[in-house]
Automatic annotation (TrEMBL):
It comes from freshwater metagenome. Pathway: Cell wall biogenesis; peptidoglycan biosynthesis. Residues 16-419 form the Enolpyruvate transferase domain. One of its GO terms (biological process) is regulation of cell shape. This is UDP-N-acetylglucosamine 1-carboxyvinyltransferase. HAMAP family: MurA. PANTHER family: UDP-N-ACETYLGLUCOSAMINE 1-CARBOXYVINYLTRANSFERASE. Its main location: cytoplasm. Belongs to the EPSP synthase family. MurA subfamily. Keywords: Cell cycle, Cell division, Cell shape, Cell wall biogenesis/degradation, Cytoplasm, Peptidoglycan synthesis, Transferase. Pfam families: EPSP_synthase. InterPro entries: Enolpyruvate_Tfrase_dom (IPR001986), Enolpyruvate_Tfrase_sf (IPR036968), MurA_subfamily (IPR050068), RNA3'P_cycl/enolpyr_Trfase_a/b (IPR013792), UDP_GlcNAc_COvinyl_MurA (IPR005750).
Amino acid sequence: MSKSTVFCLIVEVFRIQGGARLVGEVHVTGAKNSSLKLMAAALLAPGVTTIHAVPNILDVTIMAELLRRLGCTVNYSAVSETVTIDVPETIEHRADYDLVRRMRASIAVLGPLVARTGAADVALPGGDAIGSRGLDMHTAGLERMGATVTNEHGYLVVHAPDGGLVGTHVYLDFPSVGATETLLMAAVTASGQTIIDNAAREPEIVDICNMLVSMGGQISGIGTSLLTISGVSALRATEYTTVSDRIVAGTWAVAAVITRGDVTVHNANPEHLSIVLEKLTTVGANVEITGDGFRVQMDRRPTAVDIVTLPYPGFPTDLQPQFIALNSIAEGSAMVTENLFEARFRFVQELSRLGAEVRTDGHHALIRGRSQLSGAPVEATDIRAGAGLVLAGLVSDGETVVHAIEHIDRGYVDFETQLATLGANIVREASPELA
Ligand code: EPU
């Protein structure tokens, strides 16, 4: 008989005792999904670019390391949440697999590298726990601007024509956030005019447009699905503050409702969450707009609510798991339709461990609300699934232990500390795990 060896790893988990009502105030930092792209955009101009409201999360560390390998000097202060990026006159053009595989947002360097150096070798980020996540719209757009794109040994190898990228009319099949960002950053110094038709309109897209404008870029139609970029010969370094994180703000809003609490969210833009706050009103919450955010109060069991995820201004896919958690303890049944990431229902299996009644069929999930969930060990499968499981744990009877919280740490700064400040019974602790 062969002997097998069992290794024991020490990992961190969240241990939650359900039942607390969340009451108090929270402050939202800058958006992860904007900060990372703004850091990549700094590559477009030599000199020192300073970006404020950059959250202290692992992905920022990974992006900083990627920029260092490209030749930049990067300093991040967790205290002031400010990053300074000193970009040299000449930068490298290779983004290595060891970093890119850890964070899909690394693809954000693709556009700036081709624009600045005329070439890019960027490791293919590959699949993700939430779906296949293609890059075809990024590459097709670059090809329309005159670039050649090949896939060599796991790397996307892109070359701009002699004389640089050329402005053109690009029609996106789908308003992809990533493709819109790549093409914006590629077009801003291309010769002539580029039109991105069916562009994404997320607040994070508006943010990167505004930063590019502050660097000297010429962009019109910001916030609409038709972006017109008039190429300029060079950009200059800038100082910029990241837009606040609407997904984190939305997560706090759901936390208030699911625990029948009363939470005031500061540094949040309610306009970025119009449809989400409207849905929370439908489930029975009282939502009040404040000077720098909003307050959400709930005093009864929520009523189930249907949601359909869509590109902005539709309902954000990044709040879908949190709403499934909410529906799982609501009165009645709800249908949740996921239109962006086919594997985002993977976490439903974990939610079922808490007793939630969810049936999925393709991109639909039917949730029958139960009056009470029951605490159990569960595992986060991605950032937002992790947030959804924590919220469910807060309203489960007894103890819930959430594993794989490194996913949650990628999107939520000091999540458990902030939850505990609001009254949640949650601790982070080291836990031995078999490997
Ligand atoms: N798609 C393609 N081809 C492309 C580009 C996209 O098929 O060339 C598909 C994707 O496979 C997906 C859909 O289009 O099915 C949407 O993708 P999109 O490009 O809009 O998303 P992304 O840029 O990959 C960003 C956020 C996600 C967020 C989505 C949608 C970052 C780093 N990620 O992803 O955030 O869900 O936009 O809003 O900005 C998260 O924060 O947890 C997260 C996953």
